[in-house]
Amino acid sequence: MRKPIRRALVSVYDKDRLIEIGNALTAAGIEILSTGSTAKNLADAGIAVTEVSDYTGFPEIMDGRVKTLHPRVHGGILADQNNPEHLAAIAGLDIKPFDLVVINLYPFAETIATGANFEESIEQIDIGGPSMLRGAAKNHGSVAVICQTSQYDQLLEAIKAGGFTEVERRKLALEVFRSTAKYDLAIATWLGQADGKDLPEWFGQIWDHESSLRYGENPHQLAAIYSSGAAGIVGAQQLHGKEMSFNNYTDADAAWRAVLDHRDPAVAIMKHANPCGVAVCELGVAVAYQHAHECDPVSAFGGVVAANRKVDLAMAEPLSKIFTEVLIAPDFAPDALELLMKKPSIRILKCDVTSINPFELRPVSGGVLLQTTDLIDTDGDVPVNWKQVSGESVDVQTMKDLEFAWRSVRSVRSNAILLAKMTASVGIGMGQVNRLDSARLAVSRAGDRVKGSVAASDAFFPFADGLQILIDAGVKAVVQPGGSVRDDEVIAAAQKGGIAMFFTGTRHFSHA
Fold this sequence. Notes:
The protein is α/β, with parallel strands linked by helices. It has three domains: 2-193, 3-Layer(aba) Sandwich (Rossmann fold), CATH 3.40.50.1380; 238-350, Cytidine Deaminase, domain 2 (3-Layer(aba) Sandwich), CATH 3.40.140; 379-503, Cytidine Deaminase, domain 2. The strands form six sheets. Strands 10-15-14-13-11-12 form a six-stranded mixed sheet, sandwiched between helices. Helix 12 runs parallel beside helix 14 and helix 18 (464-473) runs parallel beside helix 19 (487-497).
C-alpha cells in the first residue's frame, strides 16, 4: 500500500534536476517548503514554494548555520502519523506533518579533497541536513526520505504512482543512515588527522558492495568485492573476459603494485601473489614482457600479468599464445586489444595509474593492524645512499641491475631472494621459512643464468651461509639491508668471495 505525499520539505545543496522535481511535486498537488537558495531557485522557475523561515516565523541566522533547526520543522518530520497522540500534539502547536523530505548535504568530502583550508572545510560540515535526514529515516513509517540525486528517478515514479510503499520507505531510510555514517566518518577522520600524529587514534572506513563473486579462495567460501571509493583495481574497467574471481583480484592487485614500484616500462607476472617474473626495459613493455616470461615460463602459465604502460601489439602477440588469467594495464592499443579479445578466457582490465595508498590494514582476530604502506622510494632505495661494504666498484649496468633487483624484491613474499640480469629477474626464491631455502630456490630456478647475475635480499642475512650459496653459484653483487649482529661475518664472506655488496639500511620484508 502506498502512502500519499501531501507535503514535502526540499533543501538541497546540489541543484541538479531540482526544477524537474519541483515541477513534478507541483503537478501532483504537493505543497513544497524549502530553504534559502533552494527556495529561490524554485520560485525563480515559477514553482510555488513556502520559505521555511516564513513557516517557522524565525529567520535564517549566522549565514544559514541555523535555519531548519526548529520544532515546527522537526516536529513535522518526526510525528508518527499513525499515533493519535503525536497528531494531537503537533495539531495543538499548529505543526503540519511532512510526508516527504528531499535533502542532499554540503559537499564536505569534496571540499577537503580540493585542499581547502581548515576554516573553509569546517563551514562545509552540514548540521541541519543530517538532522532532518536522520529524523525522516527514523520516522520512515510516515515519511519518505531522499538523500541522493541518484534516487530522483525513483522519486518521480513514486509521485506518479501515488506515493511510496512501506518497503520502499524502509530502503530509503537505510540509505540515509549509510550516507550520514559515511559523511560523519569523513569528518571524524579528517578532524583526527589535524592532531599531527603519524597514525590516528581512531579511524574507520566504509566499503560499498560492488559485486558478488562466484566464491572465495576455495569453492566452499562465500565472497564479494567492495569499494572504498579510492582509485585502484576495484574501479578498473573490465574490457573483456569472464568475471573476476577472488584469487584474480588478489593476484592482479599484487601484480599492479609490483609494476608501480618501477619508473621505467615494467611488466610483472604474478602467481599466488608472488612474482614469477619481473622486468623493466627502456625499449618498452613488449621486451619487458619477454624478459619477465623467460624468468619462469612454467609458473607463468595461468598467471596474472601487469604492465605500467600501454600494451601494444608487440606485447600482445606473444602474450596471446600463453594462457593468462588476467592482464591489467593503463591502456591498450586497438590492434593489441582486438588480438587479445580473441582469447575468451583472458580477463582484460584497464586501470588508471594512481598514487599508492599511504596506509594499509590487515584484519586480525579482534581488530586490524594498520601501517604506513611500504613504499619503495625511501632514501634507502636510492643507490647513491647505499653503503658499499665489500668488493670493487661496479659498472653502470651492474648498478642498474642492483637497483632493479632491490625495487623488485619488495613484491616477493619473505623470505625473499631475487636474482637479476639486464634489469630482468632470472631467479626468485620466495615464501620460505629461512633465507637458506630462498637462496637455494632462487639459484635453482635461475639455472645457468645465475652466473654473473646480481641478487637482492629483502632482509639481512642472519648468517653468512645464505650469502655463500649465492657466491658459490656465481652471483657477482648483492644488495641487502644490513643490520644483522653478524654483519661482520657476512661482509667477510663477501670479501672472500670477491663480490660487491651494498647495505641499504632499509628493509622491504613482506610477511603476508
